[in-house]
Amino acid sequence: MTAAAPLAGTNRRAGLPPSAGLGLRREHIDDVLAGAATLGFVEIHAENYMSEGGPTLALLDRLASMYPISLHGVALSLGGEAPLDKAHLARLRRIIDRIAPASFSEHLAWSSHDGIYFNDLLPIAYDAQSLERVVAHVDAAQTALGMTLLLENPSTYVGFAGSSWDEVDFIAEVARRTGCGLLLDINNVLVSSVNHGWDPRQYLQRFPMARVGEIHLAGHLVTVDELGRRLLIDTHGEAIAPDVWTLFAEVIARTGPLPTLIERDNDVPAFAIVAAEVARAAAVLSAVRVEPAREFAR
Amino acid sequence: MTPQSVFSAAVRASDGEPPAFVTDAGGRFGIYRRNHFSSLVAALGQTFPVIKRLVGDDFFDATASYFVTQHGPRSRIIAEYGADFADFVGAFEPAQGLPYLADVARLEYARVRAFHAADHGPPDTNGETAIAAVLGCRIALHPSATLIVSAHPVLGIWQTNQLAAPVAVEQWEDEACLVHRDGDAVVQTPVDHATRHFLETLIEAESLETALLTLAEPAMAGAALLQFIRLARAGALVAAADLTRIS
Fold first, then answer.
1. Looking at residues A122-132, what average pLDDT do you find?
2. A194 at the B interface (CB within 8 A)?
3. Which side of chain B, N or C, has fewer Cβ within a 10 Å radius?
4. What is the pTM of this model?
5. CA torsion angle for A87, A88, A92, A97 (degrees, to 10)?
6. What is the ipTM of this complex?
C-alpha cells in the first residue's frame, strides 16, 4: 500500500492511546471530570463545542487538560455534493488549535444539502463520482485542519442502484489516495452487513486494519422491515450487542490493541453502565499481545 | 436535480416516494425520514422544555414536526436551531388559545443563546472616575443578552414551570426581563417599566449620558444610572467599543 506523503504543515500528533475511551454525554460530565472511571481518552462531538464563549469552552479546556481528546465531527458532510463549508472548517480548526486533540474523525456520509442541515448521516453511492468528491473533500479537510483525519465507515439502510464499488474497497481507496486514517465502527459494520446481506467477518477481513486509528463500539436496535426481514438500526441507545463484542475481540486478536471508544448517545444510562462497557473493552485490549501495524501519518 | 437534491427532498417530504435510485425494499428509506424528523423534534424539545410542558408532549411533537417541515435547520450547530420557532408558534393556528406561548419560546431560545454567547467583561463602574468615563460610552446589550418584552407574565410562567408542580401565576400582567449570562449561569433579570424604557433608549443612544439626558423625567436619571450599574455588573450590558475587540 502506498500511503500518501504527509501533508505539508500537518501536525504529527501522537494519536489516541491504544486503550478504552468514552464518548462524553452531558449526563456523565461530573463523573468524567471526577475521574470516576479509568478512561484512556474521551471523545467529544465537535459541534457541541462551537460556542463563542461561556462555560462550554471552559469545559472543553478542562477535559483536554485531563484526557487525550478524540474530536469527532458529525456535520462536515464529507460525502456532500457541495464543497465543504469553509465556516464550519474554521470552527473545527478553532477547536483543534485550542485543545490539540489526539485525533479528529468524521463520517463517510453527508448531512447538509442546499443550505439545510439534516442532523443525520445520509448515505452515498459508491461510484466513481462519489469517490472523486470524497477524496477531494478529505484532502481539503486535512489541509484546512492541519491534521490527518480518521474516516468512519457508515451504517446504512438503503443501497444505491448506481454503486459500482464495494464499501470496503471504496473506503480503502479513499484512504490510499488521501493518506487519511480510518475509524472502524464495528457496530456500523454489523448494522450494514445485516441490512444489506453482507458477511461482517468478510468485511472485517478485508478492511485495511493498518489504517485504523480508532474503533467505535455502540448499541443498535433489532427490528424488522415492512417485509418482515431482520433490520438493525444504529441507535446508539442500547447496550453493545454480544455479536459486536465478539467481532471486536476477533479484530483485536488480529491487530493488537487499538484505541476503542464506547458510544452511547441516546437513552443515556447511569455512568456505571457505560463505565462497565469501557472496562470490558479495556480487558479485551489488555488480553492481546500483538503489536499494531501503522500505515498512516498522524 | 442532483441525486442528493432528490434524496433530500424525499427525506423532507412527509409522504413522498423514495428516490428511484435507492433500494427501498421493505420501506427502509423511511428510516432516514424518521431520523430527520425525530432528531430535530427532540432537539427542539431540549431548547423549549417549558413550551413542551405547557402544551404536552403530543401537541409539542406535532407542532415541532410541522415546524421542521417549514423551517429546516440552516445551521450545522444544532443548539442554534429554532431561532424562528417563537414566531412560528405565535402564528400557529392550533396554539392560538395560549397567546403567551410565543414569548415563552422567545425566552427559552434566548437562554440557549446566552449559554453559548461570546465572553465580554463589564464596563468598569467602580468609582467616580470610572463612572465619568462610562458616561461617554455607547452602551450595547452583552452578546449573551436578549431583552424579552411581553404582554404576558412571561417570566412568571417560565419560573413556575421549573417547579415539579407548577402553581398558578399570581400577578397576570405584562412582564419584561433581560435574559443573559452572569458568570457561567444563564439568568433572567426582571425589568420594570421605567427600566425597560430606559434600556430601549440606552441601546439606541450615542452614549449613556445622552440616554440619561433624554429621560422624560430628569428626576429619574439617578435611578436609571443605578439600574445601568446593576445590569452592567450582572453581565447584561457592555460598552459597545468593547464588542469590536477580540475577547
1. 98
2. no
3. N
4. 0.93
5. 0
6. 0.92
